[in-house]
Structure formats: C-alpha cells, structure tokens
Design brief:
Strand order of the largest sheet: 2-7-1-8-9
Shape: globular
Order of helices and strands: EHEEEHEEHEHEHHEH
Distance between the termini: 13 Å
Number of helices: 7
Helix content: 40-55%
Strand content: 15-25%
Low-confidence stretches: none
Amino acid sequence: MKGKLIIFSAPSGSGKSTIVNWLMQEHPELRLYFSISCTSRAPRGTERNGVEYFFISPEEFRHKIANDEFLEYEEVYENRFYGTLKAQVERQREEGQNVVFDVDVKGGVNIKKYYGDEALSLFIQPPSVEELRRRLVGRATDSPEAIEQRLAKAAYELTFAPQFDHVIVNDDLETAKQETCQLLSDFLKS
C-alpha cells in the first residue's frame, strides 16, 4: 500500500521536533519516515549521502530547479540550497513509508497544495508569543538579538496557520503529543 504524507510546520520553539521525534520513536505502527531532503552544503560530522540528505553541488541543484524536480526548495544563503525532491518522496511512498516533512511554513503550504488530500498538514503553535519568548530564552542557545529575530519570524509564520489542516496549540506537551497522534492515526486509516 502506498504511503501517505504528513507535513509539520511551526515557529522555532513551538515543540514541533519534540512531538515529531516522539511519534517516530514511540509509535512504530505509524510507519513514519522523514523525507530525505537535498542540500548544496557539504556533509557535517557523520552525515551520509542518501541518509540524512542528498548532497549535490549548487549547479546540480539549479539544474533540478530548472527541471521542476522539487516539491519545495529554498536558497537559505547564497549557493546554500535545501529542497525536497518529488522523485524521492514517491520512492519512499512506493515502499509503503508514511513520509514526514519537517519544513518551514511556506514549504508546508506548497507541499499541501501539490498533494491536496493525500497529505495531512499540521501546524504546531505556541500558546502565545510571550510563551515562545520564555521557551527561547530558557533554551539559552541564542543571543538576545537572535531571539528577537526568531520572535519576529514567528509572528510572521503564525499568519500561515489557517492554511494548514489542523492547528495544535502546544500549551501542554503531553496533550499536544496525544492530539497529534490521534490526528495521524485517523488520517492514516482513511
């Protein structure tokens, strides 16, 4: 049976990665697998081609853009591209994998438009921008300037929430995990 598609998007600090990793570790019955993205950056540490990413040159990336091979892509910095190949997603689906996309809001909206009802799009939302600020400060990984930049970006990203199938407000992590799991289970059974 062909796999289905699940899109996760959220502002930084909303708990999206925590929820996605919990689903993948604690619910193997859902057969969730990350989409393997493409990037033009070099591998870091122990990253391997075809496992964490497909590593290609900026020229190859541009060639694939020109051939309309991406579901979504972004040039994060000059010559530093990230994107999701249509053929890779289809390969994973043919293997019966339910493909998980952990993408920015624009990428999430684009993937949903492309696949329509074949994809479930979920937006993980913090209870408030002030709570998001508290979480980002609590992480102690960013400078005050970087936190302000993330909060400004989050305010913008929150405007995309209505374009997703479901918005999960993560004011209590356990509740958000259970709600997300139920939505996925229902979608995968349909």
